[in-house]
Amino acid sequence: MDEPKLKPQLKLMATYYIGECAGNAEQSAIRAGYSKKYARGNAYKLIARQDVQQYIAYLRYLQSVNPTSPILHIATINEIQGFWTNVMDSNRYDIKDRLRASELLAKSIGGFDEF
Predict the structure, then answer these.
(1) Rounded to two decimals, what is the model's pTM?
(2) What is the pLDDT of residue 47?
């Protein structure tokens, strides 16, 4: 099965729709980068598009063939923070990479926000 042509934001929405958002079109649209206001009124229209439905069918096909396909997985913030923590704590990486990981981790938890 060939991958249908689709805009990246719609691909992301479809991926969230069959993955983390478990069929919730509005949440899928928000996570894909649409505004909450736009998603509230238009998410179901985006999911109902024929090209999006074809892409969802393609993703489900990939899921059936290879459940661990990287195209089906979008890292959660906890996974990303865990990765940065592992890099920061490991001596296998250069100090510049470890410092960058600690900076990204601190930013992700609001460590540099002013009160």
Answers:
(1) 0.59
(2) 94
